[in-house]
Amino acid sequence: MHFKMKAYTHGALLAGSIAGTRVFGDLVSKTLPPSKPEVCFFDFAGIEVATTSFLRDCMVAYRNHARSQWPAIYPVGANLTRETRDELEPWLTERGDAFVICNLTDDGRVSDSRVIGQIDGKQLVALQGVLVLGETDVSGLASHVKEEVAPTAWNNRLSALAAKGILIEISSGRSKRYRPVLEGLKYGS
C-alpha cells in the first residue's frame, strides 16, 4: 500500500487539522484491508512541510485506526523532510508515542528506517532485543535479554510495540512472533 501525499495538495505544504481529517477520511475509504501483514507507506515526496496538526489528524490518526481495525496494516511515514520531522518528532515525544519513518525510492526500495519519538524504558528493552534478534517470540526475547520478567510482561511490551506499528505481530496457532516493521530498523535520530 502506498499513499502519495503530494496528491492532496497543489503546492508543497500539507497543513491544518481540517485538511488532515479530510485526507484521513479519504485514505480510510480507499483502504482494502490485506489478509497478511503489509506496510502502508505515507509518501511525503514533494512535500516541503506537513504541519503537526495535519500529521496528527491524518497519518497518526490513520495509524491508530488501522492498528485497531485492520491489524495487518502497518503505517510508515516515508520521505519526510527535516522540517516535517521537526513538526512530528517533538509532538510524538511529548505524548510518549513513536512512529516509524524511512526513505523510499520510486521503485520501492527502503533505506534509513528508524523509529522517532519516544518509547518507554521497558518497551525499549523489548524493542532493542527484537532489533538484535530480527524475529522472535516471547521466550526467545526473554532468553536474549536475560531479565527476570514474567512472560506476560514481555508479551504486553511486544503487543504495545505492535499496536504502535513498530513491530509486526505474526500469529502461528496460539503463539506469536514479532519482527521489525522494516528491515534495518533503528531507534532514534
Question: What does this protein look like?
Answer:
- The protein is an alpha/beta fold and 189 residues long.
- It is 42% helix and 25% strand.
- The chain is built from six helices and ten strands.
- The longest helix is centred in the first third of the chain and has 18 residues, at 52-69.
- It is globular and about 55 Å long.
- The two termini are 25 Å apart.
Can you lay out the helices and strands and say which pair or pack?
Elements: E1 2-4, E2 13-14, H1 17-30, E3 38-43, E4 49-50, H2 52-69, E5 73-78, H3 82-94, E6 98-104, E7 110-117, H4 121-133, H5 138-145, H6 151-163, E8 167-172, E9 175-180, E10 186-187
Parallel strand pairs: 1-3, 2-4, 3-5, 5-6, 7-10
Antiparallel strand pairs: 6-7, 8-9
Beta-strand segment tally? 10
Structural class by secondary-structure content: alpha/beta
Tally of separate domains? 2
Distance between the termini: 25 Å
Determine the fraction of residues in helical runs and give it as a percent range: 40-55%
Which fold name is given in CATH as the topology of the largest domain? Answer: Transcription Regulator spoIIAA
The secondary-structure element order is EEHEEHEHEEHHHEEE
Mean pLDDT: 89
* Residue windows where pLDDT falls under 50 for at least 5 positions: none
CATH class descriptor name of the largest domain: Alpha Beta
Strand content: 25-35%
